[in-house]
Amino acid sequence: MPRDYSSDEERRLVITTAWERLTGTEVVDHQRKLLNDPRFERDFVQFLDFAEVTDMQIDRVTVAALARFDLFSANSRRAFFAPNSLAYGMSRMFMAFRDFHGEEQMEVFADRDQALRWLSVGPFD
Question: What is Dmax (Cα atoms) for the chain?
Fold first, then answer.
């Protein structure tokens, strides 16, 4: 279950990174950890780095359930960095379910710097 996150309170940013195989259970666990993290605030922006994901074991029902869960505020921007077709497709599916629920602050990017510019956060290591 290779995934991790960090919070940058100064930039009001959550950086979520996943690599290798990512499962629906791990994504649900990630959401629970964020929800229970005292540093997390719903109006943070999020950078999701899926550049090193090689397999996603997340079914459509799980994606739909994840999309219904409002962890971030409606005004929070969330950028998916998905330079490969697998991560891009799964990110777009999630966004399609969120669009149905009125989410408008998400974008998928193949370019990391472009995603960071869209979030209005400076580069990070």
Answer: 36
Q: Which residue type, as a one-letter code, is found at position 122?
A: G
**How far, in Å, are 9, 98, 102, 108 from residue 93 at the CA level?**
29, 9, 14, 11
For the chain, give the percent of residues with pLDDT over 90: 72
Domain boundaries, the chain: 3-119
Nearest Cα residue to 50 out of 92, 90, 87, 102: 87
pTM score, whole prediction? 0.90
CB 47 within 8 A of CB 16: yes
CATH architecture of 3-119: 2-Layer Sandwich (3.30)
